[in-house]
Specification:
The chain has about 140 residues and is α/β, with parallel strands linked by helices. The protein has seven helices and five strands.
Length: about 140
């Protein structure tokens, strides 16, 4: 079971809902997290159970970032709106930086999200177990 987070900017929420609905069969076997409104919108049209954090601008991005830093997430699908300035841009940048630091795959557009979800469906994320085995400070 993987731990997957969903985040979508306002103008990308419909796209996220449609995407998660299309791949509901893949996501149903995993532990799911999301920022507030995005998670609620997904739950309104699917049978998925999602642990919702605060809205992104109110700290939800940081809450998900905290999960990354504590090695509690395996994948983030973050549909960003590159054409709209975001008031919480520093939080977004910090979250993406943490994903790079901790090697967490993050999709910021639907094309990348689809590739990652198809990899989950095939079981291609087993490499995460190997990464954890050789992390500094982890006993063998």
């Amino acid at each position: 079971m993987m731990r997957i987070a969903f985040i979508a900017h306002d103008r990308k929420k419909d796209e996220m809902v449609n995407f998660v609905t299309a791949y509901e069969h893949v996501f149903k076997g995993h532990e799911l997290f999301s920022t507030g409104t995005t998670g609620q919108r997904i739950m309104d049209v699917t049978e998925l159970v999602i642990h919702r954090y605060m809205s992104g601008p109110l700290g939800g991005d940081q809450q998900i970032g905290s999960m990354v830093a504590q090695d509690e997430l395996d994948l983030i699908i973050f549909l960003r709106d590159p054409l709209m300035a975001q008031p919480h841009e520093p939080d977004i940048t910090a979250l993406l930086r943490l994903c790079d630091v901790y090697g967490i795959p993050v999709a910021t557009n639907i094309a990348t999200a689809e590739i990652l979800v198809k990899a989950i469906d095939r079981g291609d994320f087993a490499w995460r177990e190997l990464v954890h085995k050789y992390k500094p400070g982890v006993d063998e």
